[in-house]
Amino acid sequence: MKVAKRVGLEVLGWGLLLAGIAMIALPGPGLLGIFAGLAVLSQQYEWAERRLDPVKYRALKGAAESVETNLRIALSLVGVLFILGCAVVWFLGPDQPGWWPLPDWTWLPGGVATSITMVFSALIAVALLVYSYRRFHGKPEAVAELERDIEEADRDFNPR
């Protein structure tokens, strides 16, 4: 039973970590995925535990920066609407247009499954935006505390 749990945690942790890395370039909360993967792997590996706080605080810093101004909030919401619009297109699955220069298999890959993951990504983005707004918007003391946490985590990770 112990071996099965260890293997399950390994697969889950590495899967989340790789998905987080992929989401840096793809739609989705990349740093959140990386943090989740490290959190799972930190139960078994010291190297993952040492990297956990720096990643967590940098993810929170990104969250704080995303709600610094009304323009950033609006751009984040436009991004969410764009992802939802893409999800609708993927769900409807229109025929490949004549101007599409790539092979047929490259037009809207994944179909409805991709549409569903886009909707989940948009919902996660909205939840993170609401969380960030409530925790950081108009609260310079919370951002300053976060800066101190980042410096401390960096010192702990790289003691000199």
Question: Which percent range describes the beta-strand content?
Answer: under 5%
Mean pLDDT: 87
Proportion in helices: over 70%
Count structural domains: 1
In total, the number of strands is 0
Structural class of the secondary elements? mainly alpha
Radius of gyration: 19 Å
Total helical elements: 6
Q: Which term fits the overall shape?
A: flat
Any overview of this molecule?
78% of the residues lie in helices and 0% in strands. α3 packs across α5 and α4 runs antiparallel to α5 (111-136). The chain is flat. The protein has one domain (2-157). The model has no long low-confidence stretch (mean pLDDT 87). It is mostly helical and 160 residues long. It has six helices and no strands.
Strand-helix topology:
Blueprint (H helix, E strand, L loop, with lengths): L1 H24 L4 H12 L4 H21 L3 H23 L18 H26 L3 H18 L3
Q: Quick gist of this model?
A:
By secondary structure, this protein is mainly alpha-helical. The protein has helices at residues 2-25, 30-41, 46-66, 70-92, 111-136, 140-157. Helix 4 (70-92) runs antiparallel to helix 5.
List keywords for this structure.
single chain, 78% helix, 6 helices, 160 residues, mainly alpha
